Amino acid sequence: MTSSTNNWMLIKIIKLFGALTPLEPRLSKKLMEPLISLIHSTTAMSLLYECISTVIAGVPNHTASIQLCVSKLRLYIEDADQNLKYLGLLSLSDSRQWLAQACLASRSQ
């Protein structure tokens, strides 16, 4: 997953893994490192969105990765393109349950 340069193929693979993570908990642990690497390195907004969606759906209790995803979603919300703003707000809406838990966890520390 980290060696491919074809963004559309990566998106399809990440969507597939995202659908499988609720069914196989061990898969999400194995996917974290490649997904975080892609989140840090990609400039493609479509690939970034799929990585963020997969992390939020597949590993909601990993606070550091959720915080990284929220910081990257800020790029979407601050963009001039209304479609990207919508996707950013939609992802934040989907992740609000885990965001509240992450905020409470960081507050108690």
Write the layout of secondary structure elements.
Blueprint: H1 7-20, H2 25-41, H3 45-58, H4 63-78, H5 82-94, H6 96-108
Protein name: AP-3 complex subunit delta
Domain Clathrin/coatomer adaptor adaptin-like N-terminal: 3-93
Subcellular location: Endomembrane system
Q: How would you portray this structure in words?
A:
The protein is globular. The longest helix has 17 residues, at 25-41. By secondary structure, it is mostly helical. Helix 3 (45-58) runs antiparallel to helix 4 and helix 4 packs antiparallel against helix 5. The chain has one domain (7-108). The model has no long low-confidence stretch (mean pLDDT 85). The protein has helices spanning 7-20, 25-41, 45-58, 63-78, 82-94, 96-108. Helices cover 80% and strands 0% of the residues.
**The number of domains:** 1
Spell the H/E element sequence.
HHHHHH
Number of strands: 0
> What kind of sheet is the major sheet?
none
What is the percent of helical residues?
A: over 70%
Strand content: under 5%
Instruction: Give the averaged pLDDT, no decimals.
Output: 85
Total count of helical runs of at least 4 residues: 6
Shape: globular
Q: What would you call the structural class?
A: mainly alpha
Unreliable spans are none
Distance between the termini: 34 Å
**Gyration radius, to the nearest Å?**
14 Å
